[in-house]
Every structure is written in structure tokens, then in C-alpha cells.
Description:
Blueprint: H1 5-21, E1 23-25, E2 32-34, H2 39-57, H3 63-77, E3 88-92, E4 99-102, E5 106-110, H4 111-114, H5 120-135, H6 138-149, H7 155-159, H8 165-181, H9 185-201, H10 208-230, H11 249-258, H12 272-278, E6 283-284, E7 292-294, E8 297-300, E9 305-308, E10 314-317, E11 322-325, E12 331-339, H13 346-353, E13 360-364, E14 372-381, E15 384-395, E16 398-406, H14 416-424, E17 427-428, H15 431-436, E18 440-446, H16 453-458, H17 466-473, E19 487-491
Parallel strand pairs: 3-5
Antiparallel strand pairs: 1-2, 4-5, 6-18, 7-8, 8-9, 9-17, 10-11, 11-12, 12-16, 13-14, 14-15, 15-16, 18-19
Helix pairs in contact: 3-5, 5-9, 5-10, 6-8, 9-11
Amino acid sequence: MSMGLNAVLGVTLAGLLSALAGCAVNPVSGQSDFMLMSQEQEISLGREEHPNILKQYGKYGHVELQAYVEMVGQRLAAVSHRSDLSYHFTLLDSPEVNAFALPGGYVYITRGLLSYLNSEAEMAAVLGHEIGHVTARHGARQYSAAMATGLGVTLGSILVPELRQQSAQDLLNVLGTALLRGYGREHELEADRLGAEYLARSGYDPQAMIQVIRVLKNQEQFELQLAREENREPRIYHGVFSTHPDNDQRLHEVVGAAGKVPPAGAVRTVERGPFLARLQGLIFGPGAHEGVVRGQEFYHRDLDIGARYPAGWRVDNLSDRILATAPQQAAMLQTEVEVLKQALAPEPYLAQRFKGGTLTDGAALSGQPLPGYSARILLNTALGRREARVIAVARGLQMYLFIGVTHDADAGSRFDGDFLATARSLHALTTAERELAEPLRLAVIKAAAGATFSQLAGDSRIPHHAEEQLRLLNDRYPQGEPQAGEAIKVVR
């Protein structure tokens, strides 16, 4: 009785995977895991990708704070299941609320996430969770499962000790998805369990894991609100928290079990005040290299430009563009910049950028210091098919593109004056404006008797939702108030 070709290939592949990839002992469970990546390959991958992470996010330029993150991280790593690895902990210069780990011991936390934490134990909980992903080899296990299930392992990548280029790319694709969306419910829970255990071994209260998840859950709810208002996808730390609330029974069980683990050294009494003092001056929101919004004004120190947006409009400084929205979302104006390889006048730039479309009502801008050109064109937008006002303004090799659309298709040129006035306002920064282009920073103060976050929001430089953000920063979201004399974070 003969076997079909697919069955033969299946048996052959299974045999190759078993014999050549084989099983590896999981450092955490002690059981055998199907694995297509060796520890040496994990370390090599992390070492090779680390410079790319730094290039994408940047390392936060505060030596003492970097050293603090490294110290706490190494304390946890020393009591982990893979203490023999060489761990590297980096504070990234990003406003995103995020933390993640690469295989091989490379762990990252953003200043955006750090700003919302309120104790060393909470920071340790975040780092411990990410160390848990490393020690349990979640990245390598997820890659192995994905490649085996999808028959994505080639004979070439199996028969040599190094990962081939395509296999490495497949791995990065799998890991990239995990960094954005988490490793799945079971792996995330395992990372929480391990993080809580490492907290206990290091002398921290493992209940900090519950506390930090509550902080992140509150941040997620606020981010979902912002995403709806800004008509964009939410940016959420490890998307798993949508199904991983702080009152999750299994989570409480694993954290409770960690409370029975004896510490390897002294028990740490972690106070809030000293931790907050370390955050004094921490950049909050976009950095100087991303630009700063102050009311209706936008200043970008590194590009040396400023612009004014219409009165009453909401101005959001996103990672890749500025989005200004009129009241009742009646109109939106998007601004982006492109650095050209060679100088190009605004009119041919628009023709090239919207090649295939028909530009109408074209005219050179007048009454502003920089050359510009404006036209109208039909575009597919988030609001549907709309006739958009497109404006290009040149400053050396920098080309600024403004795209304005209205909510109602028949609104026509009702907002043209606002679109054109914003483009005409683009200018080089003055000496006084360069000071205004400095980013927002955290300041730690003692709350006065009777102080409320509503009052503090009135004095804050946070451009919008200041009251909610101050509550989030101080773990009082959604309705808590400061207590007289306590140290609290404000933004100046």
C-alpha cells in the first residue's frame, strides 16, 4: 500500500525537524520544547537587531536614568532562569507607552511608559515581565511554531547552523508582530508569572505586577478614547491587556503564588517619593526632534520651522505628521514633511507627488516668506472621496505638504482660507521661538491642601486632555484627586 506524495513529504519534514532541529530543554519548565533556534542564534539575533532598535527609537540621553534602569534590570536578571545570559537594558527616547524584549537578553522600556509609573517596584514589574519573555524563549518558540505550522522551514536553514537570510526575515516578521500585539494570552500570562517570581526573588512585592497592569489598563482606555477622536489605530502596549484586566483570576493566582517565593536577599521597601525624584525633568510627549505644540503654534527645533494653526482647531503632533481638526470635525488639515535629495519647486513637486491625478485651481502662494504652490485635487480620504486642497511649501531641501479636506463633500472651499493661512504661516524659528520649541517635562511637586487635578490642568502645558493625563501620570485615573503634601507629577 503506497503513501501519497504529501504524506511522504509530511513524514520527511517531520523527521527532519525532529532530527535536525530537535527539542530543547526549556530553561523555565525543564521540559522539552520543539525549537528551530539555538541559544547562540537568539543571542546573535538580539545583538544584530539592537542597533536597529536604537536607530528607530533613539536612546534617551540621561546617563543617570539609563544607569538606574540598567541596575534594576540586572538585579532581576540575576535571579532569573537564564542568569547566564548577558542582559542589556535600554531606556528608549520615545513617547510611546511600550516595553519589549528581543531574544538573547535585550530589554527595552520607553520614557513614555516610564513617565506613568509611580514606584521602582512598578518599573521592576515591567522589566521582569520582559525578562520572562526572554527566559521562557517566547520569541524563539513562537517562531518555531509559526515556521513548522506554515512549512516555512527550508532544507537550507535546517541543514546549516546559521539562520539563512529568508529565515531570519521570517523570524523578524514573527517577532515584530509579537512586539506590537503581544505573544498571546498564555505566553503573556507566563511572562507575568515569571516577572512576579523575579520580583519576589529580588525582594520586591510581587503585587506590583497587579499595580502596573492597572496603570497600563487605564492608559489603554485613555488611548482608545484618543484614537477614536483622532480617527486612527490605537497604540497600546502589548495589545493583550484588552483581554488581561487587573482583576483577572489567573493573574491573581500566579502573582499570589509568587508571594510565597523567598527573596534571595534583603526585602526592599520601595517608597514613591525617591522614585518620582528620579523622573524630575523627564521629557513628556514628543521630544524636540519631533516638534512641540503650544496652543495653536507648532515649533520644531531640529527642522528650525514654526507654523500657526487655525484658532479653535485641535492640533495633534503624531509620529509622522501633524493633524489639525476643526470643531465638530468639520475639516481636517494634515501636514507632513519630506526631505528631498535635490531641490524642487513646489509646483512640480505637487505634480510629481500626485502623479495620475488632475490638479486644478493652481496658483503660487503670496504674502509669506517661503515659496509655495496651492491646487485642488480629488483624493480618497478617511472621510471618503473628497476634493482636497493641497499646498506645498519649500524650505531648502525640506518640502512641507498640507492636505486639507472637509467633512461634507459639498462644503467646497469653505475652509480654504484656514488651509492657506496655515501654509503661509510656515517660517524659520525666531530666537524666542527656539526656547518655545523645547519639549514638555515632568516636574515633581508637593500637592497643596485642597488642590485638584482640574486646577493643576489649568496651569499645565499639556495641549489637550490635561486633567485626564495628570490623573494617569499619578495613578488617580479616572476620578482621583491628590492628597495634601504628597509628591505628584505635573507637566511644565
